[in-house]
Amino acid sequence: MITPFISGQNEQENLVLHYLRQRSPTEAQLLVERLPQGTGRAFLEGWLLFLKGESWRAADFLMPLASLSPIHPFSLLQKELEDDEDEHRFLSLVQAGEAYTPNSPYLAELSASSHLQLGQLTKAERAVRDSLRYHPHHHGLENTLATIFYHYGAFGECLTLLRKLCDANPGRWEPISNLACVLNHLGAMEEAIDLYRRGIAKAPNAAQMRLNHSIALLKAGRFAQGWNEHEWRLKLPGHTSLPQERILPSLTPTTRLQGLRILVTQEEGLGDTLMYLRYVPWLARYGAHVHVWGTRALANLTQNVEGVRVVQVGGARPDYDYHCPFISLPRVFNGLAESFMGVPTPYLRVSPEKTAYWKERLNTSGSQRLRVGVAWAGGRHRNDRLSRLVDRQRSMALTALKPLRDLTQVDFYNLQKGEAAAQLAHSPFPMIDLMPECQDMEDTAALIQSLDLVISVDTSIVHLSGGLGKDTILMDRFCNCWRWGYNTNSSPWYPSLQIIRQEQFNDWTTVTRQVRNEIEKRSLIKTQN
């Protein structure tokens, strides 16, 4: 973290920062006391006190720093919040900060942001509206209010307010980008893309806007332009720390990679890796020696992909000629018609030993009962507040699947891991739970291979099942991810995938009803066969 308060050049400060991020206050306390007095120490001491739950004392250290930088120290801390407990603690910190600057519009925005994370939309709206009484037409507050409208599903009010902000700030690109982002989520692709063009003309180097532009292009199916534009994400933190001058360039029909060591690196979530593994076989066909530096959960499954020579988890950076983050692989093959979409499904494979084990484990030979795998929630991203906010839309409670409870000739299998798996204790229908036996994604893949159908919200299970070529139904949210397109119930990425999308924001009613119908159809076909 390089901030107005932490330069990144002081090893002692960096070590304190490390312990704070690791939630190790005892170690941080010992070191912070040795730092010289100054803004760096004050910021770190404030952070330490915040972690210890001493909000008022933390504010005593942090609030005097607010006048020294355009970036508020509270804002830096908010980006580090990992869970609901952190959000509640942060709200206490904001309350303490208001003693220094009563009716601060910026503190009201921060408060609203944490209330949003907690799903407390009414409290978020109240915080903003109370502040607007003191600061009418404050653009930051109005933008936050538009965000709250969006999460209510009040899209008319959201768009009206964002258009107003665009008109009031004709020289700024941020309101244009925000408006385009919402229109993209609503499937108004042409208007969104046109707005992004206007914004880019004002700020051609605004990396976040360029990334958002790429997402709109990809959702609209303009892959050739979209993948090139998507490289702007590499100018943002959290994507790759390897030198950009050694990223694998785009290939041409005459390119040869014979004998070159290509290091393919993990980026973002497991679903992204599973989706883009389809391009690895083409790297090998061009002569590359492919070394994947990835995650333990996917190591065995990745080793089975055609063309992978080495899979590494952790450890020191290996030698390479070029490196390529997984999400850059589509751009690498952008100009090649034959490999534009990677290899066809199924490109994920399970070892014969695990295939045999799980087939015997399920022991369903000759059964006419339809075997359906179920995943209803995404994973919790402790280090990504935006992903946690999105998860409130993409995940459902298991009880939302209650319409499936009286289906006959169907056996449901749990595919859910993580915190949401605790909902099995209150499942609306019996569910066979073998997930405790799945040690990695290859085990889960082997389990899926033995099923007839997978139904899942937008999580890595969809990519795993789709990459195996398994019959899959995606229960998709209203404001969906770019990769599932718009106005379509199919996917060019996974031909075996059927998409059933919410007809109303945050309403799974019609989705579960249609899923029930699809399961009944498949069950009838299996029974008749």
Summary tags:
alpha/beta, single chain, four-stranded parallel sheet, 23 helices, about 525 residues, five-stranded parallel sheet, about 45% helix, 9 strands, Rossmann fold, about 10% strand
Q: Would you give an account of this structure?
A:
The protein is of the alpha/beta class and 529 residues long. Among the domains are: 1-102; 248-332, 3-Layer(aba) Sandwich (Rossmann fold); 353-528, Rossmann fold (3-Layer(aba) Sandwich), CATH 3.40.50. Helices cover 46% and strands 9% of the residues. The chain is built from 23 helices and nine strands. The protein has a five-stranded parallel beta sheet, with helices on both faces. Strands 3-2-1-4 form a four-stranded parallel beta sheet. Strand 7, helix 22 (460-467) and strand 8 form a beta-alpha-beta unit. Helix 7 (105-117) runs antiparallel to helix 8, helix 9 packs antiparallel against helix 10 and helix 19 packs across helix 21 (441-449). The chain is globular.
Short description:
This protein has 529 residues and is of the alpha/beta class. It is 46% helix and 9% strand.
